[in-house]
Design a protein that fits this description.
disordered N terminus; two-stranded antiparallel sheet; alpha+beta; 9 strands; rod-shaped
Length: 319
């Protein structure tokens, strides 16, 4: 069976075909480019190539840079300048703070040790042990009322160096200060000196046992109660010992501040590294979004030989 169409019917079908083709091609590319899942973008990338500046960006590189120098990873990620400046600023302040507090702690340590060298002697300690001071306290207590003051041996001791004839007789070069309680004549021989090490400087300021060594112990010693939580403790002091305790405390505070500065320094490295990873991932997502974006454009092609002036469609894709 043959079907005969008039010229007007043919022209009407041609118009319908062109309009239908234009509608389909105009909307389908945008659907495929925007709604279809992008499988390539979902794959984990080991490196990112920026098509804008032709640079290769390694996600792990800013982490290493920030761990070495805080702020370097942010600079590599091209983050806002204030981020780089903040991490670098904290780094510099922490270094300067550590250097200042460390030197200040050493300076104050030298000062309180020199003070102890001038005002605490083994001679005072032994003399006050065997020849008690006569001064009475307000409540009637005397030197002998405190067991810690009436003996040289106790919970802690000092290291003593023996030299000369005494060392030859005893065949010893070092003894504990506890031995002087039984052999005070060793001290009076003049061949014993105290070792002024870290334990020495801690003991003379911390324990009542060594109060007798201070120069003002015979005239100005006193006792006071110290609250230790569930009970009270008797602490025996002198004005010189109290000053020594305060100076030593100030030095330790400077040392603690130096330790805190180092802690801030370490955390600054770690936080800079964590932020650099986050920034690198964010930049990577932005670059991937730019690379996977596809723009399309459809234009009609003019044909003067066609009565409608349309010779076809031009479909362009930009990426």
């Amino acid at each position: 069976m043959k079907i005969f169409l008039t010229v007007k019917e043919v022209e009407r079908m041609r118009k319908f075909y062109l309009i239908s083709s234009f509608f389909f091609l105009g909307f389908c590319p945008s659907v495929f480019s925007q709604d279809a899942p992008n499988l390539e973008a979902s794959k984990p990338d080991t490196l990112i190539i920026d098509s804008l500046d032709n640079q290769v960006h390694y996600p792990g590189k800013p982490l290493i840079m920030s761990l070495v120098l805080p702020g370097a990873g942010q600079f590599y990620n091209q983050s806002p300048l204030w981020k780089t400046a903040s991490f670098v600023g904290v780094e510099l302040v922490s270094i300067f703070a550590w250097n200042y507090f460390q030197k200040e702690a050493e300076k104050r340590r030298d000062e309180y040790q020199n003070f102890a060298d001038l005002n605490w002697t083994l001679d005072n300690w032994v003399t006050n042990r065997f020849n008690y001071p006569d001064q009475e306290q307000i409540d009637g207590r005397i030197w002998s009322s405190f067991p810690a003051l009436t003996k040289l041996s106790g919970t802690h001791d000092l290291k003593l160096i023996i030299s000369g004839d005494l060392a030859n007789d005893l065949n010893l070069t070092r003894v504990s200060s506890d031995s002087l309680d039984i052999h005070p004549e060793w001290f009076y021989s003049g061949d014993i000196v105290v070792v002024r090490d870290r334990h020495f400087y801690e003991n003379i300021g911390k324990y009542d046992q060594f109060v007798g060594g201070w120069n003002d112990a015979r005239e100005n010693w006193y006792w006071e109660e110290k609250d230790v939580g569930d009970s009270t403790e008797i602490v025996i002091k002198t004005p010189m010992k109290q000053k020594y305790i305060e100076d030593r405390y100030d030095s330790n505070q400077m040392l603690n501040a130096a330790k805190y500065s180092v802690t801030v320094l370490m955390f600054n490295h770690v936080l800079s590294g964590i932020e650099s990873i986050w920034g690198s991932q964010k930049k990577g997502k932005e670059r991937n979004a730019q690379q996977t974006r596809i723009d399309s454009k459809i234009n009609l092609v003019y044909n003067p030989q066609n009565p409608l002036g349309v010779g076809g469609l031009k479909f362009s894709v930009y990426f």
